[in-house]
């Protein structure tokens, strides 16, 4: 047995990079070929049309994401390799927020480690990876014209990036500093304001031009919101303390339809409720379904307003709903 008296190259890397590096070194990653063998994917094929997407295929052959160097570099953990792992391979990010570009061409995804991934929404390929900050990116949102994206973080700050016409290139433009972890975010229809909700359910308004909090509620009284994903707000007050369910219910997610007439909410007990929007009165009626045993992590209307997608918080199950007339 050789005596190993040195740590292997790359040992000091962050856990995610280190894991991915070793998965490549040992050809044992979570690629389509393995997922297929584990019964978790329908096909072992690569999206480049190769018959088997093995780790070796990804690194050495795949026209979409092969490593632009030699395999030995993985053993030495070269700079090139680290750049490749963190910027080309999408296996190392845990994604927690998601938003479509208004033109539908790109999807922005926020990760727990502060990376924003931009995905081509037709092919599913990661076209860009941007380092935003070192904290989880809890929510992301494009403005109505799609030339700006706001990213709200666990560290309380909102990062603003300029977006290219095609939705694939991003340039940092500004930062609004806050102190409380941000959980939800909405743009105003004129792109002048943002509203955010903290982990403690505090609603705040931000002036995007001056990069400062808008303290006067009068100034934002008549603001029209492009989306309404905030779980608190004047026009959604009836989803809290509603007389038909316990006062203790905690609303974990909300989403208004594109036509501004419906509101879907989810709570920490797994209930999904459909209200008319606006929902101001605690006597507001609704349709209810309970399908999750734990928190509903997110509920969103799809573009056509006829379908709703929901995500379970602990069971990670994704459900697609269809809205029907009664
Ligand atoms: Zn391929």
Automatic annotation (TrEMBL):
Q: Which UniProt keywords apply?
A: Repeat, WD repeat
Question: Source organism's superkingdom?
Answer: Eukaryota
Native species: Diabrotica balteata (Banded cucumber beetle)
Q: Which InterPro entries match?
A: Beta-prop_EML-like_2nd (IPR055442), WD40/YVTN_repeat-like_dom_sf (IPR015943), WD40_repeat_dom_sf (IPR036322), WD40_rpt (IPR001680), WD_repeat_EMAP (IPR050630)
Native organism taxonomy: Eukaryota, Metazoa, Ecdysozoa, Arthropoda, Hexapoda
Coiled-coil stretches are none
Q: Which SMART domains match?
A: WD40 (SM00320)
Which GO CC terms are listed, alphabetically? mitotic spindle
Signal peptide: which range, if any?
A: none
Per its UniProt record, what Pfam families does this chain match? Beta-prop_EML_2
Q: Name one GO molecular function term.
A: microtubule binding
Query: GO biological process: any one?
Result: microtubule cytoskeleton organization
Name of this chain's protein: EML-like second beta-propeller domain-containing protein
- Where do the EML-like second beta-propeller domain residues begin and end? 85-323
Cell wall biogenesis/degradation among the record's keywords? no
């Amino acid at each position: 047995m050789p005596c190993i008296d040195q740590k292997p190259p790359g040992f000091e890397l962050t856990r995610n990079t280190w894991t991915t590096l070793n998965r490549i070194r040992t050809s044992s990653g979570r690629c389509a070929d393995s997922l297929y063998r584990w019964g978790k994917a329908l096909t072992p094929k690569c999206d480049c049309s190769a018959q088997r997407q093995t780790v070796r295929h990804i690194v050495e052959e795949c026209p979409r994401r092969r490593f632009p160097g030699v395999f030995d570099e993985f053993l030495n953990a070269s700079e090139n390799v680290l750049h490749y792992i963190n910027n080309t391979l999408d296996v190392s990010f845990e994604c927690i927020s998601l938003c479509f570009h208004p033109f539908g061409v790109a999807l922005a995804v926020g990760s727990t480690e502060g990376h924003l991934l931009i995905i081509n929404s037709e092919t599913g390929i990661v076209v860009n990876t941007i380092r935003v900050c070192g904290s989880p990116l809890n929510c992301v949102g494009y403005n109505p014209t799609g030339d700006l994206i706001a990213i709200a973080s666990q560290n309380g700050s909102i990062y603003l990036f300029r977006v290219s016409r095609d939705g694939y290139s991003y340039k940092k433009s500004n930062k609004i500093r806050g102190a409380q972890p941000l959980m939800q975010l909405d743009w105003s229809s004129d792109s002048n304001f943002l509203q955010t909700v903290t982990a403690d359910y505090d609603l705040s308004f931000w002036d995007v031009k001056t990069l400062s909090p808008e303290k006067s509620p009068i100034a934002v009284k008549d603001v029209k919101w492009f989306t309404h994903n905030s779980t608190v707000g004047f026009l959604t007050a009836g989803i809290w303390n509603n007389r038909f369910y316990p006062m203790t219910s905690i609303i974990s997610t909300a989403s208004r339809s594109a036509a501004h007439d419906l509101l879907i909410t989810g709570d920490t007990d797994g209930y999904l409720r459909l209200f008319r929007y606006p929902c101001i009165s605690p006597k507001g009626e609704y349709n209810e379904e309970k399908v999750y045993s734990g928190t509903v992590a997110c509920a969103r209307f799809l573009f056509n307003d006829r379908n709703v997608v929901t995500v379970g918080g602990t069971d990670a199950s994704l459900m697609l709903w269809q809205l029907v007339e009664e």
